[in-house]
Amino acid sequence: AGMRVAVVGAGVSGLAATKCCLDEGLEPTCFEQSQDIGGVWRYTEHIEAGRPSLYPSVISNTSKEMSAFSDFPFPEDFPVFLPNAQFLEYLRRYAEHFSLREHIRFGTTVVSIRQQPDFASTGRWNVVTEADGKQKTEVFDAIMVCSGNFSEPSLPLHSFPGIERFRGQYFHSRQYKHPDVFQGKRVLVVGMGNSGVDIAVEASRVATKVTISTTRGAWLLGRVFEHGYPWDMVLNTRLMSLIKTNLPRPLSWWLINYKVNQWFNHENYGIQPENRYFLPVLSDDLPSYILTGRITIKSGVKEFKDNSVVFHNCPEEEPIDIVVFCTGYNVSFPFLEESVIRVENKHASLYKYVFPTHLQKPTLAVIGLIKPLGGIMPVAEMQARWVSRVFKGRGANMSPPMSQNAAQAGHVLFGLTFDEVLKTEWLVYLDTLASFIGAKPSMLGLLCTDPWLALTIFFGPCSPYQYRLGGPGRWEGARQAILTQWDRVLKPTRTRVPPGSSSSFPSLLAVVGFILLLAAVIFGF
């Protein structure tokens, strides 16, 4: 029999993990506690314990070309940023296309995963699962943990003095579904991550008053970016990444700050973050809502009174009826022993954010925990491609070896709070893992053999298809997918064809000439 791999969860990461195992000839069994795939992307009206919960208006933060699995582009008629229902539809098509469902056991909860007594030599695990009230134990050769980090809300009430005497209503953003609870009320949103901003914007359409309380501020990006192009297709390019990673830290911070403040001056809107690099928050609406007085920004909460709140550096109290705590989630692996993945103050100790640093055999991996500034799907998929090859022992680079001294050397602590300082540039991380398995595109090689493709890859968006051009898991359609990515972006919006229209592209030759010149300069030194 082949190598048996247990995959925990059938969301984005679990589906990618299952598919990559199949690609490598492993035998995956995916355990999903609910009755369907999709994880965080499957909206349910009622809130299920231990399952992520979204509000109906959630839209993807990354554009479809930058969020696609690398060998399965989105349909061209799908919108550029995807409402959750369409995102789920894409995941269904993916599962269908690669016949993943037959490997998923629905309605099955993973209760515990424990090392076998002979783990040091075999690396095997005992997995206890429960379905229909009955428990069952099986042995697996390896584990991929894909249970995500949106299930256990973090609500540190002790950080909010006086909350126990507050007479209004309060809840965590996980409980939020529809804005009608805010009708005619004075609302306080605590926290300025993506959920906080979304909820504040929705509330302000029906509430009397909406205030966002933020300790550290945030950088805001609009999905609609320069010239109306998707933000990530403009910012996540190899050229930008090269500039960001090679500039000295303060300079690169200044550059990003400058770029972000071009849209509106964050200081004037009361949200300029301190001098640290945070994950930006995506909202096209917030600046105009602040400008029209529908939303007010205040500093952190000092204390709650019976019917009001007091902010730091602000003497007067503000009357409030409802508080929404958008305070993020805790990372938790209830089915693992704490010694396997040490989570300390929301940090997990994982090599490359994937492998626990102190196991004797690298037969357990965590997929999709990282929070990059870029699509999570290509990242989860790349992690799964690497992990499935490590499991198979295909000489996929696993340096440093998982020994005790390596545990010290490769001891990577990664913050998992929603706006923790991002230590990893999205593209650099993807490239690193891709180079482990030999799937990183060679810029110079391509420049000689396929210069047009090379330039598109370097100056254009770093879409995931680049990682299928060569190496294991090479996909025939990758080159075509890269060269047609803008067509799929423009198709859903260019729906009105004005009479007598013709293509208004500047002379292609001039553009190509200029780009070649630039390339020569850049690759020259």
From TrEMBL:
Its EC number is 1.14.13.148, 1.14.13.8. Keywords: Endoplasmic reticulum, FAD, Flavoprotein, Membrane, Monooxygenase, NADP, Oxidoreductase, Transmembrane, Transmembrane helix. The keyword NADP applies. InterPro entries: FAD/NAD-bd_sf (IPR036188), Flavin_mOase (IPR000960), Flavin_mOase-like (IPR020946), Flavin_mOase_1 (IPR002253), FMO-like (IPR050346). It is a single-pass membrane protein. GO terms for molecular function: flavin adenine dinucleotide binding; N,N-dimethylaniline monooxygenase activity; NADP binding; trimethylamine monooxygenase activity. It catalyses: hypotaurine + NADPH + O2 + H(+) = taurine + NADP(+) + H2O; N,N-dimethylaniline + NADPH + O2 + H(+) = N,N-dimethylaniline N-oxide + NADP(+) + H2O; hypotaurine + NADH + O2 + H(+) = taurine + NAD(+) + H2O; trimethylamine + NADPH + O2 = trimethylamine N-oxide + NADP(+) + H2O. It is found in: Endoplasmic reticulum membrane. The chain crosses the membrane at residues 505-524. GO terms for cellular component: endoplasmic reticulum membrane. Its cofactor is FAD. Pfam families: FMO-like (PF00743). PANTHER family: DIMETHYLANILINE MONOOXYGENASE. Broad spectrum monooxygenase that catalyzes the oxygenation of a wide variety of nitrogen- and sulfur-containing compounds including xenobiotics. Catalyzes the S-oxygenation of hypotaurine to produce taurine, an organic osmolyte involved in cell volume regulation as well as a variety of cytoprotective and developmental processes. Belongs to the FMO family. This is Flavin-containing monooxygenase 1. It comes from Malurus elegans. The lineage of its organism: Eukaryota, Metazoa, Chordata, Craniata, Vertebrata.
